[in-house]
């Protein structure tokens, strides 16, 4: 049984998970049936809210562990009256593996995930050897994973695991997408720290 009883009101941006065992019905989260894009680790919603404003014909779902950050997303989304924006409080890795149905996502966005720089902690990184296969399962054919990080070591790992997976090919990040920055990206850019970007499209 799907854990969604009814379509939320247009400005009910935060969606409470009622089950961590049943997969979601993403169409039931939004008033309009539109392509779905998911951001894993949304921070304060700087990227998600601005991109949702630019693309009203797309539904955007932000996944974030910290409630305070989700509250910021909710306030920003309400301020702009966004009906194509939702947020869920849950761990990104669990959500990706257990709650997203196969083939439901047009694009995945993962921007500046925790780099876990200490070698003994790298097993906690979101982008690991298993990630490309999990991403391939939830993406539609042709769907794209967009990645950004300031950490050179983590970026090397990101590109290595996707290049090793036969189900993905590298593609360019569109200029209009790269222009929509996150809160971390603004901070790093002001300090002269470059952003590393990569994108991989799911093969049929």
Topology as H/E string? Answer: EHEHEHEHEHEHHE
Amino- and carboxy-terminal Cα gap? 29 Å
CATH architecture verdict = 3-Layer(aba) Sandwich
* Tally of discrete structural domains: 1
Helix tally?
7
- Mean of pLDDT: 92
Broad structural category: alpha/beta
Tell me, briefly, the overall form. Answer: globular
Detail the poorly predicted runs. Answer: 1-9
Indicate the radius of gyration in whole angstroms.
16 Å
What does this structure look like?
The chain is of the alpha/beta class and about 200 residues long. It has one domain: 3-Layer(aba) Sandwich (Rossmann fold). Helices cover about 30% and strands about 20% of the residues. It is built from 7 helices and 7 strands; from the N terminus they run E-H-E-H-E-H-E-H-E-H-E-H-H-E. The protein has helices spanning about 45-55, 65-80, 90-100, 130-140, 150-165, 175-180, 185-190, and strands at about 35-40, 60-65, 85-90, 105-110, 140-150, 170, 195-200. It has a 7-stranded mixed sheet, sandwiched between helices. Helix 4 links the parallel strand 4 and strand 5. It starts with about 35 loop residues before the first strand and ends with a strand.
């Amino acid at each position: 049984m799907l854990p969604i009883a009814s379509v939320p009101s247009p400005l009910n941006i935060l969606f409470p998970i009622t089950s961590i065992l049943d997969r979601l019905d993403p169409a039931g989260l939004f008033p309009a049936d539109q392509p779905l894009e998911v951001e894993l680790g949304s921070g304060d919603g700087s990227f998600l809210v601005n991109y949702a404003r630019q693309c009203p014909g797309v539904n955007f779902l932000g996944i974030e562990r910290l409630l305070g950050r989700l509250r910021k997303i909710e306030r920003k989304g309400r301020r702009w009256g966004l009906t194509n924006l939702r947020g869920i409080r849950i761990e990104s890795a669990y959500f990706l593996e257990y709650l997203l149905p196969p083939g439901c996502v047009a694009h995945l966005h993962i921007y500046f995930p925790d780099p876990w720089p200490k070698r003994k902690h790298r097993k906690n990184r979101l982008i690991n050897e298993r990630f490309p296969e999990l991403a391939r399962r939830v993406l539609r054919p042709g769907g794209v994973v967009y990645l950004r990080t300031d950490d050179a070591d983590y970026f090397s790992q990101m590109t290595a695991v996707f290049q090793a997976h036969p189900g993905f090919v590298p593609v360019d990040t569109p200029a209009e997408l790269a222009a929509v920055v996150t809160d971390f990206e603004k901070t790093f850019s002001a300090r002269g720290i470059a952003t590393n970007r990569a994108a991989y499209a799911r093969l049929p």
